[in-house]
Write a structure and sequence with these properties.
alpha/beta, 6-stranded parallel sheet, globular
Length: about 400
């Protein structure tokens, strides 16, 4: 067993209607100036967000809404938000949205407190030396787990790179998970974000830095996703399925915060940055290819993944049982309408080398259960592209 330290500083408020508790929480904590970060599309017009803003106003809590966050937030967006946050004099931030607004809010808070540009910290030219103002995350999707993680990803549009920063200062103070907020997610978004959560759970479970606590959480998340993601896609108003997916995303986020990720994310980041494929969809496409290539590194754990996903592996050898984990993920992808290959979503064959060149530098690549180099990644990406 590896020595480990388990981190979970974020306080979690979970349940149907939990969003209604946020104004009272803000009053109890003495927040008077709250900077609200949300998406640039429909999220900013969400009735739940408008109700939250009204309730904060009723408590004489001033708010300023920054609704410019795009998918895969850019350096420019983060820097602009950090400047606005500082000018407003915020004493807290509320992030309302999916992974992009939550990641952007983390970065905005820290850049505002530490100065400079987020690019300085992405390139390791500067280090965070002080915390930003407290962050309350309200996820509107069930996938990223960003509401409980120490990570935030920012896109450099000039170089077409997605670069993640992991720092304990980025841990949100509070995560407020309300399944009612997630009911309006379209099936395609539900599917993609659900595959993101599954990737977090599987990668953290087989990661070299996994520990007994993260293992238990990862397996629980895998089981919840296998049992509920199809139902959540089929009927978005199924509150039990929505609640279970929200819980799965949350605990998968806690798991990977402690155990780390691996090659799937290393490949998905350049796919997203270079070709605009959503992070969840990219993870979902790539996941089984990485799993298959890494099976031999840990047959027992992949066998447990198969069992958690509902596969009957009784009487099978460890190797044969492990193969069922890949089959279960492939079947889930097919049922959800996730593309089988990257080619199907418009990634050309000539993307092979640029993707590999980026993925081989991923800081968590060595955390994969199988040691992977550029040649290994070339095989995996070729398969994911459908060219081998």
């Amino acid at each position: 067993m590896n020595d480990f330290m388990f981190r979970m500083p974020t306080k979690v408020m979970f349940g149907v209607g939990a969003l209604r508790k946020v104004p009272g929480l803000c009053r109890e904590q003495g927040y008077s100036q709250i900077f609200v970060v949300t998406g640039s599309t429909s999220t900013s017009k969400s009735p739940q967000l408008q109700e939250l803003l009204a309730e904060l106003a009723d408590l004489s809590i001033a708010t300023q809404v920054f609704s410019e966050v795009e998918a895969d937030p850019s350096i420019e967006t983060v820097d602009r938000g950090a400047a606005a946050l500082g000018a407003f004099g915020a004493d807290a931030v509320i992030a309302f949205g999916g992974g992009s607004p939550m990641d952007a809010a983390k970065s905005m808070s820290l850049v505002s407190a530490n100065g400079g540009s987020i690019a300085d910290y992405m390139r390791a030219k500067k280090a965070f030396v002080q915390r930003g103002v407290p962050l309350i995350c309200v996820p509107t999707t069930a996938g990223t787990g960003s509401e409980v993680t120490a990570s935030a990803v920012t896109t450099d549009k000039a170089t077409k790179e997605k670069i993640g920063i992991g720092h304990d200062f980025q841990m949100p103070a509070y995560a407020v998970i309300d399944p009612l907020v997630q009911v309006s997610m379209p099936p395609a978004v539900t599917a993609a974000t659900g595959m993101d959560a599954l990737t977090h759970a599987i990668e953290s479970y087989v990661a070299l830095k996994a520990n007994p606590i993260s293992d238990g959480m990862a397996l629980t998340a895998i089981r919840l996703i296998a049992e509920n993601l199809r139902q959540a896609c089929a009927n978005g108003e199924n509150l039990e399925a929505r609640s279970n997916m929200a819980l799965a995303s949350l605990i998968a986020g806690i798991s990977f915060t402690n155990a780390g990720l691996g090659a799937v994310h290393g490949i998905a980041h350049p796919v997203g940055a270079q070709y605009g494929i959503s992070h969840g969809a990219a993870n979902g496409i790539i996941l089984p290819y990485v799993m298959e290539y890494c099976l031999m590194a840990n047959y027992p754990k992949f066998r447990e993944i198969a069992i958690a996903m509902g596969e009957d592996v009784a009487g099978l050898s460890a190797r044969d049982a492990a193969v069922y984990a890949v089959a279960a993920v492939e079947e889930l992808k097919q049922d959800l309408g996730i593309a089988a290959t990257l080619a199907e979503v418009g990634v050309p064959a000539e993307a092979l080398e640029p993707i590999v060149k980026d993925a081989v530098t991923f800081r968590l690549l060595p955390n994969s259960p199988r040691r992977l180099n550029a040649d290994d990644l070339r095989i995996i990406v070729s398969q994911a592209l459908g060219i081998s």
